[in-house]
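Section handout 9: paired folding examples.
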Amino acid sequence: MGEFRIPERHARLLAYARSLTPPAGWKVEISGDEIIVMAGPSVLHQRNLLLVRRQFDAHHPPELMPSENTDLASPNVGKLRNPDLTYIPLSVVESGGNEVPAEQAAIAVEIVSPSNPENDLVGKVRDYPLMDIPLYLLIDPRTGAVTLYSEPTATGYHRQWTGTFGDLVPIPAPFDFGLATDGLVRYPG
């Protein structure tokens, strides 16, 4: 496999983003030529994430570890994303550093933010397949919707499963279980 060179403008953008020190509770992401700085999640957001994580933790393969707010990097497509939850190989820890090659993530899980829903609903739906993330689970407490994207291609995810809070989400291998969503809570208002 040949060595891949990061386009110069993406390398500069990544270097700049890495030099930023956001306030506690904030995170930095890159999508194309845009740096996105977001506030940390609400308690309700965290509660929903905990419900989802407990189920994934009970079904993940032993060679994968859960990680919240880990930088997934795809310099070749100019992306640095930070999902609410991902599962990555334990072997990634041995390489050190603060970033994980995005293509090593087994899934990206996002709980839609009420302050910036377009980031999860549009930006990450566009970016995650380009980053070769095989599964994207999108939970929207604003509307009570759940979407599972799979089979990434250069033009987006080829498959999409859509349901609502209360449905059992069919999570495929390597997890292979039905995610219960009846305990998820919608945002007020």
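Moving on to protein 2 of 2.
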Amino acid sequence: MMASSLVTPVLPELQDEAQFLKQVAASFGKASNSYLAAARLQQQVARDALELLATDATGRLLDVGCGPGWIHPELSRYCAAFTAVDLSEGMLSKARTQQLATDYIQADAAALPLAAAQFDKLFSSLMLQWCPKPAAVLSEMARVLAPGGQLVVSTLVQGTLTELQGAFATLDQHPHIQPFLTEQQLIAATGNLADISWQFEQRSYRLFYPDVQSLARELKALGANQVAGRRPSGLTGKGYWQKLAAAYEQHRCQQGIPATYQVLFIRGAKHGR
């Protein structure tokens, strides 16, 4: 049966952050082979984010949250060499099979085992929402970026999966989808990083599915099925999913049922050089 909690946004305070990160890494590791086929949104957003980077094929790039490395063949237009980092050893192993990066490093993005000011560009797409401490992650990104360097980060923000959240709310008051951070909260997270000039742009994406079960299967195939602090509720039976599907039907259109994803693009340029 499918779990009733389907996706994990950024969380403000976790009682057991290390355990949560371990679960996230394991979940994505299990999805390393199914990820690419399900990653419709991830591929579209990553390519949109890459368009914000200078295409000069020079310098060193850091890909934070590289996943299975599906986009690595495209990075040659943006750098002379790149390093890949991911929390999940399973995802990193999948990326490593291409042997395109100079280094593959398993690490928490909030504590990168890398020297300061060594990368000319930094790229990270739809990874930040999985980090309990986004301010620490952004600080680490700023630290490893060289003076004059450029970073582009995309992340999910509040308003993502609002249709699914509304459908669940008609059935019970359990927190099936915990709130994503707002654009304002992420802007605030950059407040102490004065050596970076920041720009923010929010975009909305809509994907369509034949039914809510298809949406749930896609999220599971992506590995996006860990929710910090989730407790078993027993709400995974056939009858519950039938009621959820019925509640979701109000959103159905000619293309199917929609799922909205709100994506914040964060651009930064480090002072100096």
